[in-house]
Each structure stands twice: as structure tokens, then as C-alpha cells.
Hints:
With 255 residues, the protein is α+β, with helices and mostly antiparallel strands. The chain has helices at residues 7-18, 22-28, 30-36, 81-89, 103-121, 131-155, 157-163, 209-216, 222-228, 237-254, and strands spanning 42-48, 53-59, 62-67, 74-78, 169-175, 180-186, 189-193, 202-206, 231-235. The strands form 2 sheets. Strands 7-6-5-8-9 form a 5-stranded mixed beta sheet. Strands 3-2-1-4 form a 4-stranded mixed beta sheet. The two termini are 16 Å apart. The mean pLDDT is 92.
Amino acid sequence: MLTTTDSKTMAYINMFAVLGTLENLCELDENASALLSGKKPIRIGFEVKGGPSATLLFKNGKCRMEDGIRDCEVKLPFSSCEKFNGLIDGTTTPIPSKGFTHIGFLLKTFVPLTDLLAKYLRPSEEDMQDPEFRKKSIEMTLYCAAVAISQVANHDQSGKFSANLIPDGEIAMGVKDSIGATLRVKDHHMVTIKKPCEHPRAAMEFSSLDVVGGVLSGQLSAMGCICDGTISMRGMVNMIDNVNRILDRVSLYLS
């Protein structure tokens, strides 16, 4: 198995899986929605040379990510995937090419939102002792991982190899009687929909949020959970097997 990662795939993960989880943050955390309270709608566009582009729309206390650059009030260009990844790592400070009058929103609202998101996606042991925080953290991590699976499947060398072995159809990934996501495959291209799957050809179901947290953090073995029944699989085994291979790559990128 490859143990190296590439900056372009990392940029797609950072854009759509990490920043994309701001959508869920604003739904799940009242402090996030409070930061947006009373603010006029605003669109922030991110454009990465040789990599992804997306627009974040903040409106009515919520956040929505759209693929590509739309009519935006603020535009943040990045000269390379490495520079954009530096934004997520905290080593790059972007300079807007449009929207200097909205610097206040970037500094006083957007940065605190991303700091809060980082707290959930990379939680401390102390924070995870709070049951409510733990539930939200694991839910956001599941959505982040589900979107990252698609980015690795579409852009990473090893991920594309596994995706080429997956037939068309939808794969359900989620927690029993709780949250879920859909991995939709068409012509070996994968898209994640952050909603439960209605017509899966295959499914990977975790028995609880704690099992999700344990597997995604590396504290539990996915194979061990399959053996003891805390992760159940059904449908086309080939689809699940290759998604698991892609998930192994995701863990390298998100570690």
C-alpha cells in the first residue's frame, strides 16, 4: 500500500471535506450560528491554481458550499495547492483579490468559525469527555471522512485504482438509526451526498457513534469491528472492499 500523499489530493480534501464541514458545524453548534447572527449574506470564493475551486455561502446563520466560483463578495486566490493547504495548516495568510471591504468578516467571523471547526475535527481528550461535544465531533468527523473518500477516489493515484474497480451505484455509510451519508459512483467517479442513502447497492453500517469515533481515530480496528458485529456490511462486497481500501488512504491524509 502507498504510504505517501500528494498535495493536489490534499487540496481537494481540505476544500470539500474540511472546509465543507462548515456546513455541518453551523447546523450542529449554536456558537457557530451565533457568529453569523445578524450578518448580511456573503459569498467567499476559493480558487486554487491547478486544484479545486469552491464558494462558501453564509446566509441566515447557515453555510453552504458550492463547487466552483460563483458571484462572490470575497475572492481568495492561491498560486498552488501547497499554498492552499497552508491556509488549513495555519502557515499561509491569504490576500483577497476581491472584497477588501469584507476583511472584518474574514477576521472576526470566518477565522473563529474555522478555529471552532478544528476543535471538533481534532478534539482534545478533555473536550471528548463532554457527551454532547463528543456526539457533535464524531458526527462532523463522519461527514468529513465521507467527503474525503470521494476526493481520494477521484484524485489520489491509489484511490483511483480502487475506484476503477467499483461498479456504478450507491453505497450507504452511516450509523444505525442515526446519521448517514451516500457515496454515489458513476463511471468510477465518486460523489458524496451528506444524506442517508435510499437505494444502496452496498452498505457499511456502524452500530453507534462511539464505534465511528473509534475507527476514524484509529483506536478500533475496522476488521475487528466487522468480526464482532459492531460494523455490519451488506450488498456487493466488492464495493465495500474497495471503499475500505480508499478509507485507508483517507486516514493517511487526515492523520
